Structure formats: structure tokens, C-alpha cells
Amino acid sequence: MNAVNDNPTGRQDLKRQIRQLESIAALSGGIAHDYNNLLTAIMGNISLAQEYAKSDCKLSELLGQALAASQIAKILTRRLITFSKGGHPTKKPSDIVGVIENTAAFSLSGSNILCELGPSNGTWSAYIDPQQIGQAIHNLMINAAESMPSGGTVFINFENTTTDSPNSILAPGRYIDIAIRDQGVGIPAEHIEKIFDPYFSTKAKGAIKGTGLGLSISHSIISNHGGEITVCSRVGTGTTFHVLLPAAEAAADLVQLVNAEEKSEISVQPVMGQGRILVMDDEAMIRELAGNILSHLGYDADFAEEGQCAVRKYQAALDASAPYDAVILDLTIKGGMGGQETIEMLKEIDPSVKAIVSSGYSDNPVIANYKQYGFCEVVAKPYEMVEFSQKLYRVVNDT
Ligand SMILES: Nc1ncnc2c1ncn2[C@@H]1O[C@H](COP(=O)(O)OP(=O)(O)O)[C@@H](O)[C@H]1O
Ligand SMILES: [Mg+2]
To answer: Which CATH superfamily is domain 276-397 in?
Structure first.
């Protein structure tokens, strides 16, 4: 966290800031996970209610507004989870220029801000989690846009660089230096040391704007990648953030590059189906919601609170020649056997078991590599009915 503005951050200050960030990260991470579960129930029930309210315009509209508000809550929760220790990056060699281009286009869409990208031919690929880095860059783009209320341009430049200086906090190696420069109001010297502090904001408080979490999250993500973020600013002229990210190893460059934009399958209609589904979740609220959604979709649902119980029920159903068509397993069960161990035991009983993993910890390696762990699909909590119904249908029907 190097804040460059005549007065570089001292080592003591840096240590204090890191300690402060760590304790806040731990605290907010815990709250965010609980909150995420609550949101799963809220959003799931609203989207279910929307199905029943189709014939009533006013009711549909009100439910739509409730869902839109929950979606903002989901974004905030997502930010907190990324910020907390739960947000371990799932790194892969990635086309950093593509990630930045897509993020900039998304962040600035509908605004009066232009974006100009410098030459990027020959820019190394980066060893990053494209989603997390997308989030870190998004926060910078939003700040740049907010610093230019009457419009302007954000300039982004890429440079390959190699570090071997013993004074650097970076490990020696190859990096990509991304410079993001705005023509905004700038940051006064008395603020520059504080901008990476959680909850430091000079903006009016709002649901998303003015939380003071944007830069602390970007900083936390970039440090978790072994990178560095620094800032130079001049009041009245503008601000430049430099983000240094490790380059992918030369051999890894050959690995297929992963584009940040993952295909999203959006359809408005839930897909109906049939079959017996076993749902394992430790939260009664989530089991009840899943039961409601499943019966609405045409499935028969059965429930387990934790892994041992799920395995017993699965075995009993097999013995009774009435096997489950799919199981939905929560990854983390408080005080019980979670999804990862459960799938291992189920595979022993029935190697062809069809399992979906569900979790609010979407940065968990099991979620990122669910197939390696034996799952067919993943549904991230909070889930909505349409996505849930499509995935379940595909799993049950092998499509
Ligand atoms: N590009 C920028 N130009 C001017 N000020 C900035 C810029 N980026 C960050 N800041 C300052 O840093 C503060 C913290 O930013 P951030 O952590 O994203 O929180 P928030 O945007 O919610 O205020 C902002 O309130 C603003 O004062
Ligand atoms: Mg911000």
C-alpha cells in the first residue's frame, strides 16, 4: 500500500493499517456469510412469490422492487466476502488486457466517461483470478468516474516490467504494470494516507457509493495476488493508480487463456422437471425454501441437516429401489459433515451419484473446481429460481 504524495507511508503506519484491515476483514467476513444465507432465503422466496403473482401486475411490480433491493444487498455482501479472508483467489493464466477492457466497459456503461486504452500488443498474460481482479479494477473505475462528475476520460496503459529490487515488497519476477489515470478532482495530501483504510470515504453515504470499502477491497485483492497498488495524485489535475500484477509463467502462457467474461445463461422462465431430490443444508430456512422451489418445479424433495444423515438417507433410498435423481449439498455445515466429505462417501456407495454443490463461499476452491471434487454443477447462494431450475434440470436429465 504505497501512497505516493510527497509523504510516503511509514513502515509503522503500514503495519497498523494491515492489522486494522485484517481484523475488520475477519469480522466482516463472518457477518457476510450469515447475511448471504439470509439473502438466499429472501431472494429465493421473492422469486417464488413472483411466480404466483404473475397475474397481478401491482404485486409483481412490488416484488420486483424487493428483488432489486435484495440484489444491491447481494452486491454489498459479495464485496464483504471478497474483502474477508474467505476470498481466496482461484488463479489461472489470464488475458489481463481482456479482463480490464471488459471491466472498464461494464463499469462505465451508461456514464458520461470515456475510456482510452493504450497499446497492449505483447502485454504478458497475468496469473490472476479474473473475477476478483475484475472487481478490484471495477472499484478503481467507479472511483475515477465519481471523481469526474461532469465527464472526462480514463486512460489505461499497460507495461511489462521486471522487479528484482530488494527494497520492493514484491517478490522478484515479471509483472504487468497497469496505470489507470483520471482527470478528476484529485486527492488532497491529508487524505492520501487514508484512502486504503476501510470505511474511509469523502463521499455522501449511500447503499453502494460512499461505503469507503472500494479501495480497501481492491488493495486486499491485489495483495492476495502478490501484487501491489500505488497512487499518485494532484488536486485539480487527476489521479493515477498503478496496479502491479504477477505475470503468468512463460510455460503457463501456453495454457489456454481464460477470458474474464464467463458465459451467463439468462432465461426468464424456470425449467420444470421431475424426480426425487435430496437437499442437505444446515439452515432450516434454506431447506424450507429449497422444498418450496422444488415442489413448484415439479420435483419431490427430501432433506438432511448434515452429511451423515444425507448418506444414510441415500443408502436407504437405494436399498428401497427408489434412488434419488440428484442431491444438492451445502458445502459448509456448522458442526457437521459438509458437502466435500459427503460427496466422497456418496461416490463410494454410488459412483454415478449426481450431485450439485451449493455454497455462499463462491471463492472456495471446491466451488471453483467442483468437477474435480465429483460434483456435476454448482449453485452459488443466494440462488434464484430460474438459474436453480436450469441447472437442476440439466443434472437430472444429463443434458
Ligand atoms: N480516482 C479518485 N479520485 C479522487 N479521489 C479518489 C479516487 N479514488 C479514491 N478516492 C478517494 O478515496 C476515498 C475512498 O475510496 P473508496 O475506498 O473507493 O470508497 P468510496 O468510493 O466509497 O468513498 C474516496 O472517498 C475518495 O475520497
Ligand atoms: Mg469507491
So the answer is: Response regulator (3.40.50.2300)
Q: Name residues whose C-beta falls within 8 Å of residue 211's C-beta, 6 or more positions apart in sequence.
A: 76, 199, 201, 205
Does ligand 1 have an atom closer than 6 angstroms to the CB of 182?
Answer: yes
Q: What is the pLDDT of residues 354-366, one digit of tens each?
A: 999 998 766 678 8
Q: 233 CA distance to ligand 2 centroid (A)? A: 16
pLDDT per residue over 19-48, tens digit each? 666 667 667 777 777 788 788 888 888 988
- Of all protein residues, the one whose alpha carbon is nearest to atom 5 of ligand 1 is 187
Instruction: State the architecture of 92-254 in CATH terms.
Output: 2-Layer Sandwich (3.30)
Grid-cell match 497499446, residue found: 119
pLDDT range class, residue 142, cuts 50, 70, 90? very high
* pLDDT tens, position by position, 187-229: 999 999 999 988 899 998 765 677 788 898 899 889 889 999 9
User: CA 294, CA 46: separation in Å to the nearest integer?
Assistant: 15
Residue 14: CB atoms within 10 Å: 17
Element (H, E) at 64: helix 57-83
Residue with cell 455522501: 204
Distance in angstroms (rounded) separating the CA atoms of residues 377 and 104:
30
Nearest to 27 by CA among 196, 285, 199: 199
User: Which of ligand 1's atoms lies nearest the C-alpha of 196?
Assistant: 17
